[in-house]
# Entry
Amino acid sequence: MAIIETEATLHEAHRDNHTHRDVNGGWLRPAVFGAMDGLVSNLALMTGVAGGAISRQGIILTGLAGLAAGAFSMAAGEYTSVASQRELVEAELDVERRELRKHPEDEEQELAALYEARGVEPALAREVARQLSRDPEQALEIHAREELGVDPGDLPSPMVAAVSSFGSFALGALLPLLPYLLGGRVLWPAVLVALVGLFLCGAVVARVTARTWWFSGLRQLALGGAAAAVTYALGNLFGIAVG
# Structure
């Protein structure tokens, strides 16, 4: 009885700890990329014009313009990209669906060969393929996963990608603007807020990756800081030249 209870406990522990995060939902990549891009691009844009000795009003206007233009650009780009990818996958699924309808025996043999290539005994591979091919939709799903590497029922949504990228970009681009919007007149508070935001974003990303939080945070901090420093230097150089 103790053995049975122990085994049950082990099975429950495995079930509870063997769950995976959603990696195909279509929101994580555009959200992360949008926040990082908003922070880095708007920080670099604002430091560039600040280096050229632009007034506070000019920096605020530049930051707001960068936020709006970047957010709409990111949303449109993500929507088009994900929609095109989804349409391509759906077109390939239509091809596979026609093949299953016109040549079911060949497709069944193809599926059996796939399982056999993975180490399943030939007779068992043929039987598994035969049973799985009884349901056309199930057969399509299996062929799509095996041949295309996609799940027909879990394709990314263009609208989710667009909304995620728009909101995250706007939020990221707003951070370096906040000190100016709250009455600041010098650049360093905006740079500080943006760099802290970059580090925090990098640390948050580490929660869904294999990287440590401090490494991911410092990497984003270094990249964003380098971009701000370069654009500030260029803005200063061009400002002197134009002046």
In short: DSSP finds ten helices and no strands in the chain. The chain has a mean pLDDT of 85. The longest helix spans residues 56-102. The radius of gyration is 26 Å.
